[in-house]
């Protein structure tokens, strides 16, 4: 485990900008509007040869715990409690505000060491703020600019006593024990954050009746204890040990995705774009439906986007504990999916409840099975024996009386499984025949409902130009 640095400060002092600089990429949404960040976001940070987990927190506001700002503050307090050091950020251009003083009083009462940094101090713009910050009681402040990268050497020296350093984890993404990157997507208020909180067994993400609470895509590493693990080889005494009883998951919570025509607000546009980026990052995507609303056109559009991006898809119907006419609802959604997602038949459909925990273990089990199929490679010999049998059983058509000859097939890649078929005049092959091969690959080679792609390549005819 890497040591943890939590960034804390009032809204709009530049916490997310500094977070993005330390992780080396634009993970957190950044905007001039105060309060963009709501949940705490974690990333792997690096400052010269220091490596750590960096946590971007919501702006600390003194509000009632039942309000949205109050719930945001509780998340910030939890982040500080779990950190090795708190990086307290103030705005050097504005100087020390009453809320900065309130945060400082709270930090002095916590057990977590504090490093004070004055942001937006490029040039001499932060001089007054630097002088004022001494009154907060944390010693010499560090003058930095998260946007321009100034002061990073001084920040390194300030963090060094609190961080032992570490190394980034390097993993083979195709290994059975690799972290499963699992994104939860869906329309607003489908219960995505509540579902993740139930899996974690804690209120890690802010939830509530307000639509659109989640803005950033938040990733959280977690260990799932598989109640029904796969079995290993028998030992000398004949005992069959379980394999991978503890399985690593990177849960990714995303903002609700409404119809594009309804998304007018700039921040919501950024949030939806971030959710789409999370789909690109994931291996398996769970599309969460609301059982009280059923399947809508927007759900099918989200599912189609997941499939087009080549990610394994699972559909979960949430709020099953309050669903009416459950059996007919399930069958109705299944039928609508078969019709609306005709390009990918048999997508797993699982009923869950984020409130009671129903169906969550089957959901995780299905996700690992989907990742296994998504990772799968078929040996060339097995693949071509299947291919020869499939072509013999249903030969390609002969448009214009000229036969299309398909010669051999290879798997070009996995994640998602992609195959290349070589032959002559493959550009004249009808789409229906390509679907025949695609469905056969899924069915006979055990790829299930993961997206499978086929590309066709024609051999060059050396006599084509000799007329």
UniProtKB/TrEMBL annotation:
Annotated binding of GTP 2, by residue: 186-193, 253-257, 318-321
Location of the EngA-type G domain: 3-167, 180-375
Pfam families hit by this protein: KH_dom-like, MMR_HSR1
Record's keyword terms, sorted: GTP-binding, Nucleotide-binding, Repeat, Ribosome biogenesis
Alphabetized Gene3D superfamilies for the sequence: 3.30.300.20, P-loop containing nucleotide triphosphate hydrolases
GO biological process assignments: ribosome biogenesis
Binding site for GTP 1: 9-16, 56-60, 119-122
GO function term, MF aspect, one: GTP binding
PROSITE patterns with a match to the protein in the record: G_ENGA
HAMAP family: GTPase_Der
Assembly description: Associates with the 50S ribosomal subunit.
Main function: GTPase that plays an essential role in the late steps of ribosome biogenesis.
Similarity section: Belongs to the TRAFAC class TrmE-Era-EngA-EngB-Septin-like GTPase superfamily. EngA (Der) GTPase family.
Protein's UniProt name: GTPase Der
Encoding gene, per UniProt annotation: der
């Amino acid at each position: 485990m890497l040591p943890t640095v939590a960034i804390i400060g009032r809204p709009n002092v530049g916490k997310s900008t500094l977070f993005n600089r330390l992780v080396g990429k634009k993970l957190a949404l950044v905007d001039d509007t105060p309060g963009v960040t709501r949940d705490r976001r974690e990333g792997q940070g690096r400052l010269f040869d220091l490596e750590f987990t960096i946590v971007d927190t919501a702006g600390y506001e003194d509000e009632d715990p039942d309000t949205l700002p109050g719930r945001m503050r509780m998340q910030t307090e939890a982040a500080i409690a779990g950190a090795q050091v708190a990086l307290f950020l103030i705005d050097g251009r504005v100087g020390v505000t009453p809320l900065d003083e309130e945060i400082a009083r709270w930090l002095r009462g916590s057990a977590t060491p504090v490093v004070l940094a004055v942001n937006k101090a490029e040039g001499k713009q932060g001089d007054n703020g630097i002088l004022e910050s001494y009154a907060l009681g944390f010693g010499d402040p560090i003058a930095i600019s998260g946007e321009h990268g100034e002061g990073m050497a001084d920040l390194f020296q300030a963090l060094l006593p609190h961080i032992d350093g570490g190394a980034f984890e390097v993993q083979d993404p195709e290994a059975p024990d690799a972290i499963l990157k699992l994104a939860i997507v869906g329309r607003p208020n489908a219960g995505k954050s509540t579902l993740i909180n139930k899996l974690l067994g804690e209120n890690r993400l802010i939830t509530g009746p307000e639509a659109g609470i989640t803005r950033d895509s938040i990733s959280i590493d977690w260990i799932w204890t598989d109640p029904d693990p796969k079995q290993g080889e028998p030992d000398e005494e004949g005992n069959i040990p379980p394999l991978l009883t503890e399985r690593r998951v990177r849960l990714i919570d995303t903002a609700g995705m409404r119809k594009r025509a309804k998304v007018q607000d700039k921040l919501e546009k950024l949030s939806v774009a971030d959710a789409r980026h999370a789909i690109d990052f994931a291996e398996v995507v769970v599309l969460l439906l609301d059982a009280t609303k059923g399947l809508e056109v927007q759900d099918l559009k989200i599912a189609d986007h997941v499939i087009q991006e080549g990610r394994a898809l699972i559909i979960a119907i949430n709020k099953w504990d309050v669903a009416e006419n459950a059996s007919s609802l399930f069958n109705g959604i299944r039928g609508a999916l078969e019709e609306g997602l005709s390009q990918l038949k048999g997508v797993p459909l699982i009923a869950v409840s984020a409130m009671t925990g129903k169906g969550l273990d089957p959901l995780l089990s299905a996700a690992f099975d989907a990742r296994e199929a998504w990772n799968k490679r078929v040996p060339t010999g097995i693949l071509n024996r299947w291919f020869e049998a499939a072509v013999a059983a249903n030969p390609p058509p002969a448009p214009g009386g000229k036969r299309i000859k398909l010669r051999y097939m290879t798997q070009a890649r996995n994640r998602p499984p992609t195959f290349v078929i070589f032959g002559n005049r493959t550009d004249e092959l009808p789409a229906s025949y390509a679907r025949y091969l695609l469905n056969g690959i899924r069915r006979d080679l055990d790829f299930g409902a993961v997206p499978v792609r086929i590309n066709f390549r024609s051999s060059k005819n050396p006599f084509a130009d000799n007329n």
